TrEMBL record:
It comes from the Eukaryota. Coiled coil: none annotated. Keywords: Membrane, Transmembrane, Transmembrane helix. This is Cytochrome P450. InterPro entries: Cyt_P450_sf. The chain crosses the membrane at residues 30-55. Gene3D superfamilies: Cytochrome P450. GO terms for molecular function: heme binding; iron ion binding; monooxygenase activity; oxidoreductase activity, acting on paired donors, with incorporation or reduction of molecular oxygen.
Length: 419
């Protein structure tokens, strides 16, 4: 009799323990989710930076209400492998690669093969093609100057010749429109401009010049028209232009303070730039393999576990043991164009800074951030630096900050960030 009631007692104790654990986990998830959403909503920081500020060097997972937050690269790389290619929940490349490798679309394997084909040829072409990478002397926003130079170069990489004025005038506004949406300088696409971009690329594909990237690629011509255009226009022209512009601008800003590091240990300086300014903010995966869905912040992954994580220090890459650089991705979705992107960005960056007498001075009221809410405000010059170069400030900062705040929130909503 006594033994039965004691086993009942143990059973009830276990039950209550489990119940109170569940209640505790639910309360904690609710609390963390609330803190994260509220902070991401009210501050000017991107959600990825907010995550780093709130959870810092914490290890493992934080249980949020609808998914887990993965806090460090070790936990991330130990997760069961996800074999799904890019899907609509991958926000890194949206909205400018809307059709690339979507898992709902059967053509993703063809697209991937075509991408590898083009990738290999472009890697060979980089360096064989000469281009002018001299920035104009001026104080102001240099983001669009770099963007325009790289957009011409990306055309050359794909077609092995510079664009004619007519071609460029029909393609460039489309590229600009896409990047302005990505950067949230505007919120709706200009359909007419996009249509011109599409039509011009289609015309070039149909010309099928012997130097066209996919001239001898049968798989490319087996794809439907929309995929052919998207491969050229989005996967190559747009991605090279948008991603490499951001990387080059980040390097130029860092170079203004650490020129010697870029001269003496370029690879470390590039890694360190990408560690502090990864081009992606968040990664998300839907539930798979019995796992809860998860979210992770690249800003946190790249700083968690490093000494003085917010400081720029090339020497840290010489240490025998250190956390990995996560900026190129980590699983099946790891960037397939790392070599291409590194080589293009390195070539453009070095050609800019190696111009005789080049100097750069960021505006006195400019903060270097991962995104470019105010553009890339810097004074570019050659030869002797004017005495007032350090005092120059750009205008309309408050207006830009407000626009950025609004656009970041729209971005959180329309890209399902944090949901
Ligand atoms: C310039 C620096 C670049 C960085 C830092 C970068 C980084 C990344 C990252 C982090 C991912 C993974 C996204 C995720 O897991 O959600 C990714 C994927 C991808 N990147 Fe890049 N990228 C860069 C440039 C480029 C360029 C120039 C191209 C094209 C020529 C490119 C093509 C792609 C593609 C196609 C994927 C999707 C891969 C897949 O899911 O199979 N990237 N990139």
């Amino acid at each position: 009799m006594l033994s039965i009631s004691s086993s009942h007692f143990e059973k009830y104790t276990m039950y209550f323990k489990k119940l109170s654990m569940n209640v505790l986990v639910s309360v904690q998830s609710f609390y963390y989710t609330l803190v994260l959403y509220l902070s991401a909503f009210v501050t000017l920081m991107t959600p990825g930076t907010v995550i780093w500020k709130i959870f810092g060097n914490r290890k493992g997972k934080v249980h949020l209400m609808s998914r887990d937050l993965i806090c460090d690269s070790e936990t991330l790389t130990k997760l069961p492998k996800c074999s799904k290619p890019l899907d609509q929940f991958t926000n890194a490349l949206c909205p400018f690669l809307p059709t690339f490798l979507l898992d709902s679309d059967n053509s993703w394997k063809q697209r991937r093969n075509v991408f590898s084909f083009g990738n290999d040829i472009i890697i060979e072409r980089i360096g064989q093609i000469s281009a002018d990478f001299r920035l104009t002397s001026k104080p102001g926003n240099i983001l669009w100057d770099v963007f325009e130079m790289i957009s011409r170069y990306s055309f050359q990489l794909v077609f092995n010749r510079p664009p004619t004025n007519e071609e460029f005038n029909r393609i460039y506004p489309g590229l600009l429109d896409i990047n302005r949406i990505i950067k949230r300088f505007t919120s709706t696409p200009d359909v007419k401009i996009r249509q011109n971009f599409y039509d011009e690329v289609l015309k070039l594909i149909q010309d099928n010049d012997k130097d066209f990237l996919f001239h001898s690629c049968e798989t490319f011509f087996q794809m439907e028209e929309i995929h052919q255009v998207s491969s050229v226009a989005e996967d190559f022209l747009t991605t090279i232009t948008v991603q490499c512009t951001d990387l080059v601008c980040h390097m130029l800003l860092v170079y203004s303070e650490h020129a010697d590091d870029f001269q003496n240990q370029f690879d470390n300086a590039l890694n360190e730039t990408l560690r502090l300014y990864p081009l992606t903010d968040l990664w998300m995966r839907q539930p798979y393999g019995g796992q809860r869905g998860w979210i992770t912040s690249l800003v946190q992954l790249n700083r968690n576990g490093w000494a003085q994580p917010d400081a720029f220090s090339c020497e840290r890459w010489n240490l025998p043991k250190h956390p990995p650089l996560m900026s190129w991705g980590f699983d099946i979705r790891r960037c397939p164009a790392q070599k291409l992107a590194t080589n293009v960005s390195k070539l453009v960056f070095q050609a800019i800074v190696n111009q005789e007498g080049f100097w750069i001075e960021p505006a006195a009221n400019f903060q270097h951030e991962r995104t470019f809410p105010y553009g890339c405000q810097a004074w570019i010059g050659y030869g002797e630096k004017p005495k007032n170069a350090r005092q120059w400030k750009f205008e309309n900062k408050l207006r830009m900050q407000l626009r950025r705040w609004l656009c970041e929130k729209l971005r959180m909503i329309d890209q399902n960030e944090l949901n």
